[in-house]
Amino acid sequence: MTALDTLAQPALFVTLSAVVGLAIGSFLNVVIHRLPKMMERDWQAQCAELRGEKAPDEPALTLLRPRSRCPACGHQIGALENVPVVSWLALGGKCSACKTRISARYPIVELLTGVAFGCAAWHFGFGLAALAAMLFLACMIALTAIDIDTQLLPDAITLPLLWAGLLLNLEGTFVDLRAAVIGAATGYLLLWGVYQAFKLATGKEGMGYGDFKLLAAIGAWLGWQMLPLVVLASSFVGAVVGVALIVLARRGREVPIPFGPYLAAAGVIALFWGRPMTDYYVRQLF
């Protein structure tokens, strides 16, 4: 038995995928925290250039540099303090230097990514589809957290995700290429049409362009056939959560609610269970 055959064993593949997912989740925390800051710096530099001014002189900030550190005291986080989930538990959810609390989001994102990767390995089995699904899931998790924090869905994630879906489906990884292309176009135009109709009727913008691009990316990965399920599921969950926030949290109706997390959740549902769910409803109708 070769090493590849050993890795393809279901139990081992699922376990290794979950462990890798924990590590990827740690990196996603960096993306969630830094990418919006990097975008803001780029916007400031562009505005300064348009005004004929010099861009602000700030330390370099990328997804890899500088090394992670406590935002409260600047303590540089060592390797032993950066082990997914375990380090947070060992430190009691506090910085080892200044004892400032560390958000529980960090281990939650790591655990969620680990579980998601393990589920993808179990559902799709060893092969390209499982690895592609892990990429899709990682992007959905990052986009969800960023949208909740900033109400932004960065092009740096949504656009590469769209193109990756089309390229993967050249060989029909999830759907045939025709369905993927139609899905990408339909996903974008569908929400763009809703946006334009809402703006025409109310004079307000009901959603952002990032939502159009995210649904286009989901369509590119899963095909146009999954779009009705994604739109219905995201709209239903969004409506329920929105009403709950207004009633229970006393959140004003004028406070915008990000739609990206609901699209992402619906995309994950469609990835794992979209085909049997769609087939079930079609059988009920006919």
Protein model, in words:
By secondary structure, this protein is mainly α. It contains ten helices and no strands. α7 (177-202) packs antiparallel against α8 and α9 crosses α10 (260-285). The protein is globular. The mean pLDDT is 89.
Q: Shape from CA axes?
A: globular
Helix content: 55-70%
The pLDDT mean sits at 89
What's the SSE pattern? HHHHHHHHHH
Model regions low in confidence, pLDDT < 50 over at least 5 residues: none
Total helical segments? 10
Q: What structural class is derived from the secondary structure elements?
A: mainly alpha
| Global Rg | 21 Å
Please report which band the strand proportion falls in: under 5%, 5-15%, 15-25%, 25-35%, 35-45% or over 45%: under 5%
* Biggest sheet descriptor: none
**In total, how many beta strands?**
0
Amino- and carboxy-terminal Cα gap: 48 Å
How would you name the oligomeric state of the polypeptide chains in this document?
single chain
Keywords:
single chain; mainly alpha; 10 helices
Layout of strands and helices, then pairs:
Elements: H1 3-7, H2 10-50, H3 86-90, H4 105-124, H5 128-150, H6 155-168, H7 177-202, H8 209-222, H9 227-247, H10 260-285
Helix pairs in contact: 2-4, 2-5, 4-5, 5-6, 5-10, 6-7, 6-8, 7-8, 8-10, 9-10
Short description:
With 286 residues, this protein is an all-alpha fold. Helices cover 68% and strands 0% of the residues.
